[in-house]
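go over this record:
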Amino acid sequence: MSLGRRPVVLSCGEPAGIGPEIAASAWAALKDEIPLLWLGDPRHLPQGTAYEVVNDASQAAALSPRTLPVLAYDFGGLSVPGQPDPTHAQHVIDVIAAGVGLVRGGQAAALCTAPIHKKALMDGADFAYPGHTEYLAALGGVEDVVMMLASDQLRVVPATIHIALDQVPTALTPEKLRRTIEITHAGLRDMFGIAAPRLAVAGLNPHAGEGGAMGRQECDWIAPLLDQMRSEGFDLAGPLPADTMFHAAARARYDAAVAMYHDQALIPIKTLDFDRGVNVTLGLPFVRTSPDHGTAFDIAGKGIANPTSMIEAIKTAYRMAQST
């Protein structure tokens, strides 16, 4: 099957969240452009969704775009919007694994995952991973992965992610920052088609430490590490004050920004392009994207969820698959 006919796999995510409805909306918007295959229990799709159950990915590619191809799983029981059911947890996990299998086996072009609810998975299936990304890394047989948030206006990578702010200085080691930069550089080259990636690296402290007056990490090891990597051929700017990295003129000088912690990275992109931000996992042996939002239990089932981030995630996944 050529890339043009291999579908992007959409995993269902948490059925009680907005995943099924934004998947249906995204399919309606993209059905004439990108072949899709949804994995989940079709009873969780919005009422009136035109779908057809298929046996494999090749069948999905052959269907008319008037129906959403579904590789069906029977989750059992009912799904109540906004109320996750622990009995569905293992099915959600199995769907993610199946989606990875289809992409790694060459039957699908890329994987786009709907949001999961980690507590529901832990309560219902003893889910042993901190989150979606760590589970995908295990399925891909890799240890080091990087979370990139991407839109047309900005690509940004946090070197540390879901940890308390007071833990960042300890978690942020030279080895950790080096691997983050290396994986980001390789991802931009191999999955975004940028031959010579330019990276801007933020400092950890205000004003990038201001020569040691506001923190020593920049002087003691961040700047020396970046100098060493520049000598190895990496195009790096920094360490830079984070408060001057994200205006339009600054963004024009780099292909991606590497930030030191979660909010330093996510506040700029969510301010610049809240609806169109896409979560991209770099370092996996397959293409994976997801919308940059959660399960949104408070609006699930009301038909008002905005599918824009899911649409952009699918588009990004398909473009990345074409570059690999």
Remarks:
- Residues 34 and 182 are 31 Å apart (CA to CA).
- The radius of gyration is 20 Å.
